[in-house]
Design goal:
- By secondary structure, this protein is an alpha/beta fold.
- It is built from eight helices and 13 strands.
- The chain folds into two domains: about 230 residues, Metallo-dependent phosphatases (Purple Acid Phosphatase, chain A, domain 2, 4-Layer Sandwich), CATH 3.60.21.10; about 45 residues, no CATH class.
- The strands form four sheets. It has a five-stranded mixed beta sheet. The protein has a four-stranded mixed beta sheet with strand order 6-7-10-11, with no helix packed on it. Strands 2-3 form a two-stranded antiparallel ribbon.
Amino acid sequence: MFDIIGDIHGYSDQLEALLLKLGYRKEGGVYFHPHRTVLFLGDYINKGPKIKATLVIVKAMADKGSAIALLGNHEFNAIRDLFRLENEGLSPNQSFQWEDSLLAFNNNLNEFKYYVDWFKSLPLFYEDNRFRAVHACWDPEHIAHIRHKRSKDAGPEDLIATDPEWNKALTETLNGKDLELPENVSIPENGLEAGTGVRAKWWEDPSRMTYKAFSVDPLDLPDIPVDLSGIKDWKYYGEDEKPVFFGHYGRARFSSLIRHNVCCLDFGVGNGGSLAAYRMDESSKLSHDNLKYV
């Protein structure tokens, strides 16, 4: 049985409180449960006050078999930026990834690199006969591509490959899908980055949505139907699919299940919200009662 935990972002106190609430106990410095395993959905670093402590907890659990840890976009960005630092002369202060995380390690790059090397080994998704889990987006073609590519004994450097199809699979799996807005429509500043594209609800059928409803983030967008001409290959997540869990969308402030088989577990702890978990049981349909958070 799994306890699936969303984005932690350096909030180790909340993580420990949640683990205790779920019945995990610390033995030899590692949290264990006699009958259950944690599945972490990624984004362990940045934003929060105790990034190093978070990594110590998550890695120890993964190493000892009491957890599975997926790769998040923040971990991937750290991998990419460290590669650029070592191969292209990138200065640590040129990337937001280093600002919080390096400070957490007292600017000890070698100590932080120890964890970045571990990030390279993390899986990009999880699937069994009952459910699926990914950091940001479950696209069956991307998942198949990742499964195939990583089954060929690809090394950690494979994450920095430049193949366009691979890059798209990585980008959308870890960051989600974007939808271009109609011409002459842009995102209001509203505390977010302005632009012409929005983070889209890949689990919804776009033919039934307006731009306002299809945006993950609550934005003042046109309440007009989505133009489907540019997303003919969009494969939304069907209602008859296995339950899927993901994180990533903390700005949206999800606080409950989205659908009977769709659950976002990023309740925005990095933005003043809660740290959330879903406690799996034998049911094939998700229940609000199984959500736990601190």
